[in-house]
Amino acid sequence: MAEKLGPEKRHIFVHNGQKVFEWDQTLEEVNIYINLPPNVLPKQFYCKIQSKHVEVGIKGNSPYLNHELTYPVKTDSSLWTIEDDEMHITLQKRDKGQTWASPIMGQGQLDGYSNDLEQKRLMLQRFQEENPGFDFSQAQFSGSCPDPRTFMGGIRSG
Fold first, then answer.
1. Ranges under pLDDT 70 in the chain
2. Domain 7-108: CATH class, spelled out
C-alpha cells in the first residue's frame, strides 16, 4: 500500500531549453536523476555530496552541477549510482518529512500548486507509515495540508 503513495512522476528542471535533471522525493529522501552523455565511461563521473552542497561532473572538467542544496542532508546515508546511462543521486533528508520545492537552492522551484500536492502526498505517506494497516492512497485533504514534518507532534523516530 505504501508504494501507492510514492512519487507518481519525476519533476523536470530545464534551464535554457535543456533538461538539467529530474527529481522526486519521499518522506526520507530526495532523488536526482541525470542523463549521462554518451561515450563517457561511468568511472569518469564523480559526485560529491556534502551536508548542504552537491557537485557532479566528469573528472578533469568543470562540474556539471555545483550548487547548494535547498536543505541539509545526511552525508553518511546519501549515495550515488550509475545505471543505464543515468546517474541516480539519493540524498537522505536530515529532517524527515520536510517538503522540498527543489533539490537545488533557488533553481527549478515547484510552483505553489505542485508544492502543495507534494506536501499532501508526503503527509499521506506519513499517515501510511504510522498506520500500516490502513490504506491512505485515496485520502484527500480539504483546505490546506499540514506540514508532514511537524503535524500532531511531528514524526516519531523509528
1. 1-6, 156-158
2. mainly beta
